[in-house]
Specification:
about 5% strand, 4-stranded mixed sheet, alpha/beta, about 350 residues
Length: about 350
């Protein structure tokens, strides 16, 4: 099945680069690195505001608080960071109008109460807290500025998803903690006198990691069908072929499958791809456009949004269920496919 790659993952990739340039800039202050840090910080904000803004503020705090230069230079480095930050935030204006950006980045999340769609797993919250305490203790014990930067970043990342504390969101936001463990392991290995152990230990650590990554990659290899898991390969008659989808001008994905438009290179004519934050006016406009473009297929996946108490009895979903042909519930994904005309063979 398709991996859950969305704005959370993209923003975390940008955050990794932000941490890299910031650590380099704070260690060896250069205008270029502060400017690049600002650019990557802006990218993080564009992908996910609730993550990008805390990281941007944390970065500015680190620039003013931990750069080993006179205050006047810190101000200049801070302005270099802000310059890169603003350049990246202004860049989308070359592609979209200010009103489009304002509606998608500000109006839609707030009017749809994005932060109210919460889910908290107390066990995951405790694990995240333990990680931060551990990093804080390591920072105090070592009095190392690099550890301090990692700890502040980890705190900012944890705060950025307090409205949604679960296993996937924690895992894609703990790279500072992983770097902290790697630094500690490196110290321990350097203290080992046997050269064979020093060379073999990293290999033993990375091989299982590479194996896991490879297995996920192989599982998600794109084929001629949407789904390539073993379950679907055993039932080729229940697979919706990509050729069938390519023939459709419009396809609807909801309520929380925004990435599928990108994955399948399909245009999204609707005002909001994340139906969790679609207000009453947004739902009315979505239904109007839906009736106008008449998507050939509609994909609904309620399993992904069940924990958010998503209201299935909204105008858009009810219209699909009433006027579209039900083609089946595809397991184990839990996706229900509807067709405007005939179901795919």
């Amino acid at each position: 099945s398709y991996p859950l790659i969305n704005y959370n993952v993209y923003s975390s990739v940008a955050a990794v680069w932000l941490l890299y340039f910031l650590v380099r800039a704070l260690g060896w202050p250069r205008w270029k690195d502060f400017f690049l840090s600002g650019i990557v910080s802006g990218v993080t904000v564009l992908f996910l505001q609730t993550k990008g803004l805390p990281l941007s503020m944390t970065s500015l705090g680190l620039i003013f608080g931990f750069t080993e230069t006179p205050l006047k230079f810190r101000w200049k480095y801070g302005w270099a960071f802000l310059a890169g930050f603003l350049v990246m935030l202004l860049f989308p204006l070359f592609r979209w109008s200010p009103s489009t950006l304002y509606n998608n980045l500000i109006v839609a999340p707030w009017s749809g109460s994005y932060l109210e769609h919460t889910f908290h797993a107390s066990g995951i919250a405790v694990v995240g807290g333990i990680m931060i305490v551990f990093m804080t203790l390591m920072t105090v014990a070592r009095k190392d500025r690099s550890f301090l930067i990692l700890t502040f970043f980890q705190i900012a990342l944890f705060l950025s998803h307090l409205h949604l504390v679960d296993y996937p969101h924690l895992m894609i936001n703990i790279f500072p903690f992983i770097l902290c463990l790697a630094a500690i392991a490196d110290e321990r290995l350097n203290a080992v006198r046997a050269p064979v152990v020093r060379k073999l230990a990293p290999v033993l650590f990375f091989l299982p990691l590479l194996y896991v990554v490879a297995m996920f990659s192989i599982r998600n290899v794109r084929g001629d069908n949407i789904y390539t898991t073993e379950c679907y390969q055993k039932k080729p008659d229940s697979i919706l072929s990509l050729d069938v989808l390519r023939s459709a001008e419009y396809v609807y994905f909801g309520p929380f499958m925004m990435g599928m438009y990108f994955e399948l290179r399909k245009p999204n004519p609707f005002p909001q791809a994340n139906m969790l934050v679609c207000s009453k006016d947004c739902l009315k406009e979505t239904l109007r456009i839906f009736k106008s473009v008449k998507p050939k297929f509609a994909f609904l996946h309620y399993g992904m949004v069940q924990r958010f108490h998503y209201n299935e009895h909204n105008p858009v979903d009810q219209y699909i269920q009433k006027y579209y042909r039900w083609c089946g519930d595809y397991q184990p994904s839990g996706i229900t496919i509807y067709a405007r005309d005939e179901c795919p063979a």
